[in-house]
Design a protein that fits this description.
- The chain is 29% helix and 31% strand.
- The chain is built from seven helices and twelve strands.
- The strands form four sheets. Strands 5-6-7-8 form a four-stranded antiparallel β-sheet, with helices on both faces.
- The longest helix is centred in the middle third of the chain and has 14 residues.
C-alpha cells in the first residue's frame, strides 16, 4: 500500500474511517442523475450580525445595595441598584430600582434612567455658574473651573459628571453621605444651570447685540 493511501485512512475513536483535509477538499457531491452539485459554504459570517454603530448613551452602575424586608414568613432579601446614563454631552439621567438579583435590578434602573433623562446648559466644557443644591440630607456644591482643571470631585459626583460633556469642575459634597441623595442633588444642580445670556442684568446686553446686528 502506498504512503498516500495510508495517510487517507485515518481511523476515528468509533472505528470508522475519517477523510483527510486533502481528500475532503477534492470530494464532490452528486445528485440522482450523477451530476456534480455546487459546493455550499455553510459558515456564517458572524461580523455581519454584530452591531458596529456607536452607542448614543453610556451607563455606569454607581452603587448596588442589598436590602431586606420583613414579611410574614421571614426576611425577604433583594438588591437595589443606582445607575447613571449620559451621552457625554448635555444629557444625563439617573435611575434607582430593586430586583430579586443584581442583573434585574440594574436593568430596571437603566430603564428608569433612560426615562428620567434631562438636558442642561453648559458654558464650554464647564457649568454656567456656581450652584449649591440639597436633597434630603445631602448638600452638593458645584463651581465652574478654568480649562485644564479637570473634574475635582469624588465618588458619586465624579461618576455622574463623567457621563456628561463637562471636563472642568470643582465640587464639594457636604452633609449626608447617602449616595442616592447625592445623585439627586447633582441632577438638581445641573437642572438649575442658566446660560450666561439669560442672567439677570444681561438682558440689556443681549438686546443691544441684537439691535447692532440688525443695523449692520
Amino acid at each position: 500500500m502506498a504512503e498516500s493511501d495510508k495517510q487517507a485512512q485515518v481511523v476515528n475513536k468509533s472505528g470508522t474511517l475519517k477523510m483527510t483535509d486533502d481528500v475532503a477538499a477534492t470530494r464532490t457531491r452528486k445528485d440522482i442523475n450523477g451530476k456534480n452539485l455546487p459546493r455550499r459554504n455553510n459558515r456564517r459570517d458572524r461580523s455581519r450580525n454584530q452591531d458596529t454603530t456607536p452607542k448614543e448613551f453610556d451607563t455606569v452602575t454607581i452603587n448596588i445595595d442589598r436590602v431586606s424586608r420583613t414579611v410574614k414568613g421571614g426576611r425577604r432579601m433583594r438588591f437595589k441598584a443606582l445607575v447613571a446614563m449620559g451621552n457625554h454631552k448635555n444629557k444625563i439621567g439617573i435611575g434607582i430600582a430593586k430586583g430579586g438579583d443584581v442583573t434585574s435590578a440594574v436593568q430596571k434602573a437603566t430603564a428608569k434612567a433612560k426615562k428620567s433623562m434631562i438636558e442642561f446648559h453648559m458654558d464650554g466644557e464647564t457649568i454656567c455658574h456656581e450652584v449649591e443644591t440639597r436633597s434630603t440630607g445631602a448638600d452638593v456644591l458645584m463651581r465652574p473651573a478654568a480649562p485644564g482643571t479637570g473634574i475635582i470631585a469624588g465618588g458619586v459626583v465624579r461618576s455622574i459628571i463623567g457621563l456628561t460633556g463637562i471636563k472642568n469642575l470643582i465640587s464639594k459634597s457636604l452633609g449626608s453621605t447617602n449616595k442616592v441623595n447625592i445623585a439627586y442633588a447633582v441632577i438638581e444642580g445641573l437642572k438649575q444651570q442658566v446660560p450666561r445670556d439669560e442672567w439677570v442684568g444681561n438682558e440689556g446686553k443681549k438686546a443691544k447685540s441684537a439691535d447692532q446686528k440688525e443695523e449692520k
